[in-house]
């Protein structure tokens, strides 16, 4: 989380070039995500694992030839979009991200398209780690205040784990439950591959004091907000 926004350190003015640049970042993260999964699941013998570790270190050295000192923050692209490529749930550039794609599904509503949580996210045997579920729901619920124009920090997130969530395909959904000035209460659920609700969530998201000057005066309840026409994963 960063206080404020920062311009992209590498502005790319040509939209085609920007798309290609982002696609290459996404491809790198996808490749490393596969590596993460296989690092957990591999059964190749010990000398082979040692050899792979040496090669992976060599690849890291190539990437470190030019790397940013700190985190990415919230960057502004040359075509005016905000992007959070380092985000561990939705970040295009982050191999730790499943990744989720969270979309606006209606007024004050969002959903995470079905996505797969594999071996790297295991908690109880064969099932998703509870802390990972919390992260997923924080992201899905947290998108809702953003799409109604009140992007906030999580003040609390209450979870009720109704049943274990099997590893594999999951999805999520969330909606505004109430608003009070700078505070938005959101409810949501995680669903398994059969569409069964496994976890219920309620969160409070508060626009921090430092951010309020950028967002205008809050109005009453959810009906008073004008939701943007579209909010994609990079919104
Ligand atoms: C323009 C940029 C805006 C930036 C917003 C930040 C992120 C949004 C960016 C993009 C959004 C897109 C997608 C979002 C997806 C996922 C979201 C993930 C979010 C996170 O992963 S985020 C990390 C974990 N999160 C924290 O690290 C929070 C630490 N914390 C604080 O930063 C402060 O604590 C804060 C900001 C919560 C409030 O602080 P503050 O100083 O701004 O305001 P204050 O304390 O006055 O509270 C104001 C009113 O909220 C009430 N209130 C506060 N806390 C409450 C609680 N727990 N229960 C019940 N009511 C509570 C008060 O009682 C008062 O109520 P009232 O106004 O009625 O008196």
Automatic annotation (TrEMBL):
GO terms for biological process: fatty acid metabolic process. GO terms for cellular component: cytoplasm; membrane. It is found in: Cell projection, Ruffle membrane; Cytoplasm; Membrane. Residues 126-197 form the Thioesterase domain. Keywords: Apoptosis, Cell membrane, Cell projection, Cytoplasm, Fatty acid metabolism, Hydrolase, Lipid metabolism, Membrane, Transit peptide. It catalyses: tetradecanoyl-CoA + H2O = tetradecanoate + CoA + H(+); decanoyl-CoA + H2O = decanoate + CoA + H(+); (5Z,8Z,11Z,14Z)-eicosatetraenoyl-CoA + H2O = (5Z,8Z,11Z,14Z)-eicosatetraenoate + CoA + H(+); (9Z)-octadecenoyl-CoA + H2O = (9Z)-octadecenoate + CoA + H(+). It is an enzyme of class 3 (hydrolase). SUPFAM superfamilies: Thioesterase/thiol ester dehydrase-isomerase. GO terms for molecular function: hydrolase activity. CDD domains: PaaI_thioesterase. Gene3D superfamilies: Hotdog Thioesterase. Residues 70-95 are annotated as: Disordered. It is a peripheral membrane protein. Its EC number is 3.1.2.2. The keyword Cytoplasm applies. InterPro entries: HotDog_dom_sf (IPR029069), THEM4/THEM5_acyl-CoA_thioest (IPR052365), Thioestr_dom (IPR006683). Its main location: membrane. Belongs to the THEM4/THEM5 thioesterase family. This is Acyl-coenzyme A thioesterase THEM4. It comes from Janibacter alkaliphilus.
């Amino acid at each position: 989380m960063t206080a404020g926004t920062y311009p992209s350190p590498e502005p790319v003015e040509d939209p085609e070039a920007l798309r290609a640049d982002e696609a290459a970042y996404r491809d790198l993260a996808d490749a490393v995500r596969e590596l993460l999964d296989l690092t957990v699941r591999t059964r190749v013998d010990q000398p082979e694992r040692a050899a792979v570790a040496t090669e992976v270190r060599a690849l890291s050295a190539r990437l470190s030839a030019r790397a940013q000192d700190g985190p990415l923050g919230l960057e502004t692209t040359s075509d005016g979009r905000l992007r959070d490529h380092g985000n561990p749930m939705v970040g295009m550039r982050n191999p730790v991200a499943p990744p989720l794609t969270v979309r606006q599904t209606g007024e004050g509503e969002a959903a995470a398209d079905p996505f797969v949580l594999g071996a790297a996210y295991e908690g109880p045997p064969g099932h998703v780690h509870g802390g990972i579920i919390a992260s997923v729901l924080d992201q899905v619920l947290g998108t809702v205040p953003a799409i109604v124009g009140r992007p906030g920090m999580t003040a609390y997130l209450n979870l009720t784990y109704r049943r274990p969530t099997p590893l594999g395909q999951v999805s999520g959904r969330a909606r505004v439950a109430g608003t009070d000035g700078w505070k938005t209460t959101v409810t949501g659920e995680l669903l398994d591959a059969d569409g069964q609700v496994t976890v219920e969530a309620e969160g409070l998201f508060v626009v921090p004091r430092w951010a309020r000057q950028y967002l205008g005066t809050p109005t009453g309840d959810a009906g008073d907000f004008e939701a943007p026409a579209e909010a994609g994963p990079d919104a």
